[in-house]
Amino acid sequence: MEKYSFPKILYHALRGHKHWQPAWRSPLPKKSYDVVVIGGGGHGLATAYYLAKKHGVTNVAVLERGWIGGGNSGRNTQVTRSNYFYPESAAFFEHSLKLYESMSRDLNINVMFSQRGVLNLAHSDHDMEMLARWTNAIQLNGIDSEILTPQQIKEMEPLIDINARFPVAGGFIQRRGGISRHDAVNWGYARAADALGVDIIQNCTVTGFNISHGTVTGVQTSLGDISGEKVHITVAGHTSVLAKMAGFRLPLTSMALQAMVSEPIKPVLNLVTVSGAIHMYVSQSDRGEIVLGAGADVYNSYAQRGSYDNVESCVAAFLTLYPRFSRLKLMRQWAGIVDISPDTSPIMGRTPVQNLYINCGWGTGGYKAIPASGDTMADTIVNDRPHALIKPFSLERFESGALVDESAAAGVAH
Amino acid sequence: MFRISCPFCGERDENEFVCGGQAHIARPEPAEQVSERDWAEYLFFRDNPKGLHFERWQHRYGCRQWFNIVRHTVSHEILAVYRLDEAPPDVDREEAV
Amino acid sequence: MSNTQPMRLETGGRIDREKPLSFSFDGKQYNGFAGDTLASALLANGVRVVGRSFKYHRPRGILAAGAEECNALVTVGRGALEEPNIRATMQPLYDGLEARSQNCWPGVKFDIGRSLDYLHFLWPAGFYNKTFIWPHWHWYEGFIRRMSGLGKLPPADDPDHYMHHNVHCDVLIVGGGPAGLSAALAASENTARVAVIEQDSRLGGSLLWSEGNINGERGDAWLEETVRVLRQRDNVTLLTNTTASAWFDHRMVIACEMVSDRRATGEGEGPRQRLWKVHAREIVLATGAIEQPLVFANNDRPGIMLASAVKQYCNRYAVAPGMRIAIATNNDSAYGVAGALMSAGVDVAAMIDARQSLAGEGARALRDQGMTVFHNAIPLDCRGDRGVRSVSVARRGGEERLATLECDCIAMAGGWQPAVHLFTQARGRLRYDPSLGAFLPDEIPPHVHVAGMVAGALTLDMALEQGREAGLAAAGDGLQVRPRTRSKSTGALHMERAGCEHRPDRQWIDFQYDVTLQDIDIAVAENYTSVEHLKRYTTTGMSVDQGKTSNVNALLALAERTGRTPGEVGTTTFRPFYMPVTLGALAGRDRGEFYAPVQRSPLFACHEQLNAQFEDYGTWRRPRVYPRNGESEQQAVAREAVAARTSVVVFDGSPLGKIEVYGPGAAEFLNRVYLNNVTSLETGRARYGLMLNENGIIIDDGIFARLPDDHYLVHTTSAGANRIHAWMEALLQGDWPDLDVLLTPVTSQWANIAVSGPRARELLERLEAGIDISNNGMPHMSIATGTVENMPLRVLRASFTGELCYELNVPADRGAALWGRLMQLGEDLQIMPIGVETLGVLRTEKGYLHVGSDTDGNTTPGDVGWGHVADRKQGEFLGKRSLSRTHNTSYGRLEFVGLTPVQDGSVLAAGAHVIGAEHTGAPAPTQGYVTSACYSPNLRRYVGLGLVQDGSRRQGETVNVYDNGQVHPAQLSTPAAWDPEGDRLHA
User: Fold this and answer.
1) ipTM
2) At the top level of CATH, which class does the domain A26-79+182-250+343-400 belong to?
3) Inter-chain CB proximity A308 and C248 less than 8 Å
4) Nearest chain B alpha carbon to A299
5) Do C156 and A19 lie within an 8 Å CB cutoff?
6) How much is the pTM?
7) Best of C167, C168, C250, C873 to disrupt the B interface by mutation (most B CBs within 10 Å)?
8) According to the model, what pLDDT value does residue C1 have?
9) Is the peptide bond before C441 cis (omega within 30 degrees of 0)?
10) Sequence ranges of the domains in chain A
């Protein structure tokens, strides 16, 4: 793998930038692999990378229907945080946040992880009590979080109107939370996995599974059959479709989740700010765009476009809290298909089919999980048992009733 | 924005309605005799098809009546609307995925 | 040419020379005319450098004459009226307009940021992915952030307002050019309601600046007549200055109308913009096409423009974009530009045509007029940093130099890409047409029609014909819309693209974000060869114009370099918005105070009179507390809470959810939705009940009462009123249609006043309502009806304070009268109102559960001490099955308990967590949390409620309570701290 650095850019500049190496190869699929990963998003690429890096399993294919990073991992709002309520969630996401902190050096690509702080707002005394419950949980989990007064919030983010229709009663911040560059994360994992021998195969659609006596033996694809000792499904919104091909159902609903960006302006927002009560979160990208996230459209959808009502209510919420932005213009709006589980926590691990693994149900918050998800799923696949960090997120919990419902306990979803 | 034909009021904008998820989920009775696996199936597991979806909607900010629709989850086209006491219409379930 | 506007032509144009306007750019005063855009007025004044590029801070001039402009982004207005990133080409000129350049320092003519350009070889595509890794991105981020961004946020809040307008029509026509107008004429012949949306300030499209001949008359005359006819038709709505920007499901088009910069122009009040939400049965897209630039060395210099823009400035605005103009083309359309310039007396340096042979009439005609026409030739490079001064011409391939021409403007004609944005948002599919070098509509979705240049019609006749066909089809009865054929390119450009070859000097693809051909080469070398990867890696097409003038060139270059056809490469997705939309316009009036409605109780005015301190609880604005004579909130709560337990108080409970349940199936229905037994309830009696969802989780609670006959009154929490009613309707209509039950939500029909305290009965007796309210006549948990002062009255004896308590319900409009009467009758009893905060204190003292605070989304009846009720209940109820699942019967569940601080004076706050006594701080495993807590004025200590692991079995145990770093010991107890035996309820 060509090592990226400033001297390397200088070196290539002197040679007219004509000799850059491919970030990854585009091989034809082999007949068989040790592990076939379906889905070339961040989760799938990270899984392949950790299979090769930590377990020495390099005979791995990542099959992507379109272009890698083209699903939710390339169309999210790039927020990473570990301010979770339940210890099981906190342990997982803190592991993920730590991997984000070292990712640029680990993958030798600048993912621009900007730990500018994630601020959650409360708009009433009751909100504030719930937020205290949440903050204390985070602190007890050994993770940083600070309660803030409205005045402190005003100082940190002066453009918030703390006396708005929903006045700001307080909030808390996780300073280690922040945003990064999603494409760089995807490409970084792809490049590093490829360098270790993983085959990344784009434009390859999985059309069926080869299953014999309850054990998966491979997949049927638009490029022919590919056999795999083990097969991993990590396709976010389309998980139900793949599961149906493999003959089982999942507790998932696919919905369109929207995001939108304004035209770029000079930096004015310092933090990532979330208001659970009015369903809005906002940050400013390093390029200058104001990035807004809205709620999901609450009906089943596989269309990567959102409803207009959600655009309107998201913008109205934003302007209610940040009236100064009224004359700015919205440049682009899009949606991704998220797969939401009943308790809004992920579903990871084994499936009713032997040697077939799933990693899904990330709902609206999968981006921040990419590294930990790849790490723990690689371990799970190699050892055919759930990694300790993901045991609570098994499919079986829906039978026993041991749900991990963050929104139920803290009043705020992922 | 969807335009939905309420069987009782006529065509209205989507924001008068609320989607109640998959239709025709029969409550297993008597519940006490249902296994944990089947009970989980009833509570949580859904078809979630990429294609035609039979789903319940309520005209919440109108007549408050619930009814069913058949909607394509990619095009979002509504192929049929029917009352709860009507049988599901005969639409080709494998249509255009 | 007039002296004050050096580049203004003496005659012609659609400007009003009688109405001169003055404006400023970067502080310097200029003049223009009514009918000008800011761009045309700047050009008329010879202003060439109007902006700087994003990355290299290169000088930029005006490129286009319409929505596709990506260079001339300026800030207009001052103070609160300031708006960044306005396209000068779309900004109508008004008197006193102030415009400023942006993204440059100290100024647009000399910009320090330009130093980045001289080191450009260090910042190729993807450079920021490859550097700034050590030691950490934070070291560099601040600087990079300051360098990025274009305009600035205005310094004050927006004083303008914005409106929304919903319309329905039979036929919506997007685009008011020849094809759109022709469609409108045909569609509106009968009764169909037709709307036409045009982004320009005038209807006519290319007819405004292009000579045309329609049915033997001048295009002008046809336009005038057509607009006149359309205006006369009642069934036609014509909107100008309105851009259709996005297409949403079920044929809703969002269009933003620029009504007026009223404040800036002094026109007074009124909306600044109006957002149209158009629902249409059929939609005709006549959105035209966007001319594409040519790729050659230094093609980003000021003075290099799209050929069609040159023609527009000349013909429509009577402005010469240059004194001497060279035209470079790869197709026929540039010849009309040459003709127009020559007619206007503008000097044309030469025509540089890339095509191998020049068979066309245009070339011959030009040559006959003595003009130099190069064929098989391309512009190789150009000179002139702040404005082009010359262009060098070479044979295709670049080896053979043909000439160097002096010129101050280069018109580029690189072919036309249809504006297919809305078409693809409508799920239409495209195909690549090699003869046009563009992507054309292919599979056309139902109820959509395309006409004119967007459909590949290159001649006026074809555009009119297609428009007419589309208009007729769309206005048909809907059943007989005739099948739309694939659009086919009609007419010909005889286009022949010269390849994009590597040259020593940079060739721009995306002018705004500074993406060059070399960046594409790098992306290809690194295997970013998916068109989406290319876009994201190089940032091409990601700027404010969203690639209107860069996407096609980028993907053609990509196709060429990867040995694929453009069709195989495909396009990136054309997401909303076609043109950026002002956030204020999207929000409309639904922001600030109107963001969410406020619900007020019928007694709101009474509370105001009593100087209540209000607070929003969910959607309701309710009295928090009623402070008197400078009391603090804490003092007022203490006074109210003590009064509630010593004399008599009133509380406005009107927001409490109320649902009337009637019918023979009512008892059975309620028996299924309540955990409690309903069928055994006698008429006149009431019971407290819990509702569970099918997952066994408590979703609401409240008192239900039985009235005579099959009639029940169900109370829900204030927050749950609508949710529970909708849920009950779903059950009745969907799951149990056999039950004969009628539900009526009556929350807002009744005013509810709770009279509570040891002297409550004494007060009620004075009301003389004709109800026996003695302890025997009306025991705890009973209901009776009567009348007071001709008001129908319902009295429910039930308590949420722990004291003797009656809830009086009268019709909402009589609530204030009853409130007044009670306050009057109770004057000698020192009656006083209590607010929601005080109520919270009373119920916490008493240990009453508050669903939503003391329960969460995991709490089952067993967790709050109601397991025995569930166990005893005969028959089926919702949630029952889930209660016996493994997890719900296991140890370690969070259970409802009381908490008492062990140390004197120690505080207990909701949100604190319970940790084991052996832990003295974080991190520590949580064992649950305090869900409600307050200082109890009656017990003179803090009281708390919580959900604690196995809490019911741990009463008496001392635990530690953790709150934001502080730890205090507390003892677990039963929830009720006040009157645990409940004697006072039955007094």
Assistant:
1) 0.97
2) alpha beta
3) yes
4) B19
5) no
6) 0.96
7) C250
8) 40
9) no
10) 26-79+182-250+343-400, 106-177+254-340
